[in-house]
Design brief:
single chain; 603 residues; alpha+beta; Lipocalin; Rossmann fold; 2 domains; 13-stranded mixed sheet; six-stranded mixed sheet; 11 helices; 25% helix
């Protein structure tokens, strides 16, 4: 029986490590996405509560790293022009569409004892829906390290995934009247009359009751003087209480007068004013319910169309049609898919991950024979260390705006090379060490697809080369003394896999492959064991744990087995006992087992 053991080879190991490190660096440089690819247009509304201004400044500075933050005054001006000053889904959607705003952030600060609690709210511009609402606790009126990490992990990845809000829409509250009738100062007589009527209607509606949780925000109501308190970050989802006939007429007239003004303001907007800093987006651990928004949104707009009679009904029904489109955008193929967990730990979100570490591989080769004497030697080798590198790369997923299935198509690469081993052969009481080499290379395509809330399935096919070579050049041995053929496998391995998100920091994975073996090397040569039917299989299980925003540790076990059914036409299958008419060796089993431990960097 031939066995193996590890031999320390420092120079070979250093050369291998240096080559692998250079490969990883080259991949990172070539495939790293441009920070500008994930830019979003955001607006930060005025925060409320004690020390709100200090917190707002810190939040804006953090959001400007990789995003365009639109001045708040521009939002407030558009809100005035559209008559949509109350913070609710319908109004957010209207204004965001006018200004092409992808996300709206509001905040409220409360003080409890010596602590400040910042309640943040992120709304999606396209639908007006709330998609994140983290709470941050600080001991001083500023964002500390933990507060910044909370925003980075619970808001920024969701901001990356926000769908574009779109531009100005002709149906937006225009009432279907194409005749502006503007005076020289840009305001029509009809608009002026409607404003006066609206002011009177608002005065009648000021006494309407509000929810108890709004008592701190009473000063946010609209006033006749056009005050801008109404856009402080209150975060309620109620419709305006002043949507009577006068208010609706004013809204329709004011929208026409404001259309030209809003268009001019958009043309002056410069997206490049907040281009300070790289896009240092990191992992998120929160859940996202945006995938469920489409049904709610159409329901909300249905209510709106019922309230807004007359000219506005046509506009709201148009919005309803848009929401029907949104449901397709926010479906299961969204970038924030598996379980809504929008972090890099989630395999669905990664554009690339690169694993580098140590592998441990053992080998057992046994033969099926009826002989008692002159049996094939076989091989029994325990796990020996190797260098392991693997990468899954999804090139079209680097574009965060790509929501199609093409972002799920990628390539998979595996390089596993034993650092150095020797095979030991015992003969007449002597043990001979034979130089040996072993490696496994694989490359192919992979497709991933989220299923349900926490599961991702994968399908892949790779081309593999697995080699095990024993150097027989030993002057103290005859070639016949080493009764084991070298193997040089070539095979294709179609397979399926899964990844299941256990929590914000943990993912388990498993895959199984069928090996379509096209070549085995010496094993099937006529001077060895001859022709055979060869089949194989491979299984692997892994566990990922996140130790930093973009770094995982991964541990895996794997098992590969290849079986032979010899056809009896090789020299070593039917002539080992001196009788060439009988089959002495009918089959063999070549098995590799072990695993690896690696660090994984996520892109």
């Amino acid at each position: 029986m031939t066995t193996s053991r590890s031999i320390a080879s420092r120079s070979n190991a250093l050369r291998t490590l240096a080559w692998l490190a250079a490969t990883v660096v080259a991949l990172a440089i070539v495939l790293s996405p441009s920070p500008a690819a994930a830019r979003r247009r955001l607006v930060v509304l005025e925060f409320t509560g004690p020390k709100a201004e200090a917190f707002q400044d810190d939040v804006e500075k953090l959001l400007k790293k990789g995003n365009s933050v639109v001045p708040r005054k521009k939002w407030e001006s558009a809100a005035d022009d559209l008559g949509a000053t109350k913070l609710n889904e319908k109004n957010v959607k209207k204004i965001a569409r006018k200004l092409s705003i992808d996300g709206v952030i509001s905040g409220r600060v409360e003080k409890r004892g010596s602590r400040y609690i910042l309640h943040l709210q992120l709304r999606e511009g396209k639908t007006g829906k709330t998609v994140a609402a983290p709470d941050i606790v600080e001991r001083s009126p500023s964002l500390g390290v933990d507060g910044r990490d909370t925003i980075k992990t619970e808001m920024m990845p969701i901001i990356d995934d926000l769908p574009p809000a779109g531009g100005d829409d002709e149906d937006d509250d225009e009432g279907g009247d194409d005749d502006d009738g503007d005076d020289d100062d840009g305001t029509s007589a009809k608009t002026k009359a409607a404003k006066a009527k609206a002011a009177k209607a608002k005065g009648k509606g000021k006494g309407k009751a509000r929810d108890e949780d709004e008592d701190e925000d009473d000063d946010e109501a609209e006033d006749d003087g056009g005050g801008r308190k109404g856009w402080k970050g209150r975060g309620d989802n109620e419709d305006d209480g002043d949507d009577d006939d006068g208010g609706k007429a004013a809204k329709a007239a004011k929208a026409k007068a404001a259309k030209a003004k809003a268009a001019k303001a958009r043309s002056r907007d410069d997206d490049g004013d907040d281009d300070d800093g790289d896009d240092d987006r990191v992992a998120a651990s929160g859940d996202d319910d945006s995938g469920d928004d489409s049904g709610d949104d159409s329901g909300d707009d249905g209510d709106d169309s019922g309230d807004d009679s007359g000219d506005d009904s046509g506009d709201d029904s148009g919005d309803d049609g848009d929401d029907g489109d949104d449901s397709g955008d926010d479906g299961g193929d969204d970038d924030i898919a598996v379980g809504g967990k929008v972090n890099l730990t989630n395999p669905r979100r990664r554009a690339m991950d690169v694993a580098v570490g140590l592998s441990f591989t053992g080998r057992k080769l046994s033969f099926t024979t009826n002989l008692m004497m002159n049996r094939p030697q076989g091989y029994d080798g325990g796990p020996v260390p190797g260098i392991y590198i693997a990468a899954d790369i999804f090139p079209l997923a680097f574009n965060r705006r790509n929501k199609g299935i093409t972002r799920n198509l990628g390539i998979s690469i595996v390089i596993d090379r034993v650092l150095s081993i020797s095979s030991n052969l015992e003969k007449t009481g002597m043990v001979y060490e034979l130089p040996t080499s072993e490696h496994h290379l694989a490359g192919g395509v992979v497709y991933r697809q989220p299923v349900g809330r926490s599961l991702q399935l994968e399908g892949s096919i790779r081309y593999n080369k697995r080699k095990f070579f024993i150097d027989r050049n030993n002057p103290a041995l005859l070639p016949a003394d080493i009764d084991i053929p070298n193997t040089d496998y070539s095979y294709v391995d179609p397979g399926v896999g899964m990844a299941y998100v256990l929590g914000p920091k943990m993912v388990i994975g498993a895959d199984a492959r069928f090996l379509l073996i096209t070549d085995t090397g010496e094993m099937q040569s006529p001077t060895q064991y001859g022709a055979a039917t060869v089949t194989g299989g491979d299984v692997e299980g892994s566990f990922d744990y996140q130790v930093a925003p973009k770094i995982l540790v991964r541990a895996a076990v794997r098992f590969t087995t290849i079986g032979y059914a010899f056809k009896g036409n090789g020299e070593l299958t039917n002539n080992r006992d001196g009788d060439a008419t009988t089959v002495d060796v009918s089959g063999a089993r070549d098995t590799y087992f072990g695993g690896f431990a690696s660090g994984v960097y996520l892109f």
